[in-house]
Design a protein that fits this description.
Strand order of the largest sheet: 10-11-13-12-14-15-18-19
Shape: globular
CATH class of the largest domain: Alpha Beta
Mean pLDDT: 87
Helix content: 10-25%
Number of helices: 8
Family: Belongs to the C/M/P thioester hydrolase family.
Strand content: 25-35%
Low-confidence stretches: 1-41, 242-246, 462-467
CATH architecture of the largest domain: 3-Layer(aba) Sandwich
Structural class: alpha/beta
CATH superfamily of the largest domain: Alpha/Beta hydrolase fold, catalytic domain
């Protein structure tokens, strides 16, 4: 994938938003200070964001120069999603005695984030005022970047950005897919998904990647894992258009695992399973019971062991449907679902026998998870594994103030969002939980530790830095 940068020239009469839209369409880097008329004595502000093209988990260095000393300014970011929605973030800064601002050194005194936060302009993004209710920012087309316009304005602003002229603007591209990563549709032996293969001769270690009860095919985390050197299959199950009870049986997941394991670009015996939410229940089940899918290590994010998939599909579906009666709507009409798995059963047959897991296991939980009682589940898992003598295989990352949707770093936090329930296809506002800053910290810390865990237990050398 080859890239070039081009400067877009435009009339100063064009509005800031029009300029940003034109720049984004051309995938170029722009500095609007170039377009502002100046006297022979004036020095135009300059804004830079490096690298301009990067993976989504790579930090940005944003620097503004040629400002007045001790000038109040606002750094502002905006992203136009594939669904035509707009997300924004902003921070208030005061330039130093040299007229410079650096997000890696200077603190934001207000806005959507405060303090020294190099990536605050991304993780604190939220829908612009007047947007549709219950939005969640998710990348669908991983073959294209997230284009984020970053601007600097004079003064400390909180609104009206589209009506003001920016002092300068740069355009950045945030990618889930590194150059050379192959994307391959999987439609084989009844298995549906997408395979991502890193560049190079291979073979590589591999990860089977599963999302939660929302169903469908979600590719962006798998693409990012492949960008870090793992052959990764994003698995589709619980499909909204053709939901069947067999979609939640173990046979489908075992076939998916074997399909990945047997791929010529995959190192035999070096396959991990990673699941979030219901995908974690699948992961627990495979690790504990499967004779044909035996992962080298497993990662479970925001999951529980109270739904063992080694039961019959109809029995499991009936139990899940009965437990939905424990969910309730809070004062904001948000669905709180964590109590559907409380109290944690004491009967061994109602839980995955995690004491039978024989591979290293990492569990990631947010202590403010309002969707599943993951904290209570993890405590029970720890006790079960200790009693069984395999507690040494368990690593727990537990984050105060984090919610259910622990995603790759710098993904904007959403406390609630629209969700279609599987049991009755009802649209609800699901409460995921979490507070923005603690949740952002949890995403960054857990992602780095997940990558290290995978590299360590799949017998990789020190993970290479994947860069664009």
């Amino acid at each position: 994938m080859g890239w070039t940068s081009t400067v877009l020239e435009t009339s100063t009469r064009k509005s800031y938003i029009t300029l940003c839209e034109e720049v984004a369409k051309m995938n170029v880097v722009a500095d609007t200070s170039l377009y502002r008329p100046s006297s022979s004595m004036a020095v135009c502000p300059v804004l830079s964001a490096q690298p301009t093209r990067a993976l989504v988990d790579e930090k940005l260095q944003i620097v503004a120069r040629n400002l007045r000393p001790r000038q109040e300014v606002t750094l502002y970011s905006i992203h136009h999603t594939e669904d035509k929605d707009c997300w924004e973030a902003y921070g208030h800064y005061i330039s130093d005695e040299h007229g410079s601002v650096s997000v890696t050194e200077d603190a934001s005194t207000g806005g959507t984030y405060t303090g020294v936060e190099p990536m605050g302009l991304l993780w604190s993004m939220h829908p612009i005022p007047g947007s549709r209710h219950g939005l969640r920012l998710r990348k669908r087309d991983i073959m294209s970047p997230m284009v984020v316009n970053i601007s600097i304005f004079s003064g400390h602003m909180t609104q009206g950005f589209s009506e003001k002229d920016a002092l300068a603007t740069v355009v950045t591209e945030r990618w889930y897919l590194a150059p050379g990563v192959q994307r391959v549709d999987v439609r084989e032996r009844g298995v549906k998904g997408t395979l991502f293969i890193p560049p190079g001769p291979g073979p590589f270690p591999a990860v089977l990647d599963m999302w939660g009860g929302g169903g469908g095919l979600v590719e962006y985390r798998a693409a990012l894992l492949a960008s870090h050197g793992f052959v990764t299959m994003a698995l589709e199950y619980l499909s909204a258009d053709e939901h069947r009870t067999h979609d939640i049986g173990t046979e489908y997941f075992e076939k998916s695992y074997q399909l990945l394991h047997s791929h010529p670009q995959v190192c035999p015996g070096r396959v991990a399973v990673l699941g979030l939410s219901f995908g974690a229940a699948v992961t627990f089940t495979l690790a504990a019971y499967s004779k044909t899918a035996q992962p080298q290590c497993c990662v479970c994010i925001s999951g529980t062991h109270v739904y063992p998939l080694n039961k019959s599909s109809s029995e499991l579906q009936d139990r899940m449907n009965r437990n939905t009666a424990k969910a309730y709507l809070d004062e904001n009409n948000h669905l709180v679902a964590k109590y559907t798995i409380l109290p944690i059963p004491t009967e061994p047959e109602l839980k995955v026998h995690v004491g039978q897991i024989k591979c290293p296991l990492m569990i990631v939980v947010g202590q403010d998870d309002q969707n599943w009682a993951t904290v209570e589940s993890t405590e029970d898992i720890q006790q079960m594994m200790e009693r069984s003598g395999n507690g040494h295989l368990l690593t727990v990352l537990s984050y105060p103030g984090a919610g259910h949707l622990i995603e790759p770093p710098y993904t904007p936090h959403v406390r609630f969002s629209n969700f279609i329930t599987q049991h009755n296809k009802q649209k609800v506002l699901m409460l995921w939980g979490g507070q923005t800053k603690p949740h952002a910290d949890a995403q960054e810390d857990s992602w780095n530790k997940i990558l290290l865990f995978l590299h360590t237990h799949l017998h990789q050398d020190t993970p290479p830095a994947a860069r664009l």
